[in-house]
Amino acid sequence: MKNLGDTIAFSLAVVFFIIGVHQTMVFGIAYSYFIFMISMGMLFLYRYRKAKRKSLEQEAANKKAKPKRTKSR
């Protein structure tokens, strides 16, 4: 499962966001700011991993599909 890490990162981003909303309603935004920042960090990690995997797959497909040129005179 190559997407397990991405799934975990996205799930943690959602969980921390929900916890942040709850803490905001109970204590205020000043006390829950760091929880929102953890949520954003996990979301950035998810997006970075997804983009990196996509670019690696695209490079592999380009290498595979690139025909070799032969010199003909």
In helices, the fraction of residues equals: over 70%
Poorly predicted ranges (pLDDT <50, ≥5 residues)? none
Q: What's the shape?
A: rod-shaped
Report the portion of residues in β strands.
under 5%
Class based on secondary structure composition and strand pairing: mainly alpha
Written as H for each helix and E for each strand, in order along the chain, the element string is HH
Strand elements, count: 0
- Cα(first) to Cα(last) distance is 49 Å
Number of helices: 2
Radius of gyration: 21 Å
Q: Main β-sheet, in a few words?
A: none
Report the mean per-residue pLDDT as an integer: 90
Structure description:
This protein has helices at about 5-25, 30-65. The protein has about 70 residues and is mainly α. The protein is rod-shaped, with a radius of gyration of 21 Å.
In short:
The chain is an all-alpha fold and 73 residues long. The chain has 2 helices and no strands.
Draw up the topology in text:
Elements: H1 4-27, H2 29-65
Overview features:
73 residues; mainly alpha
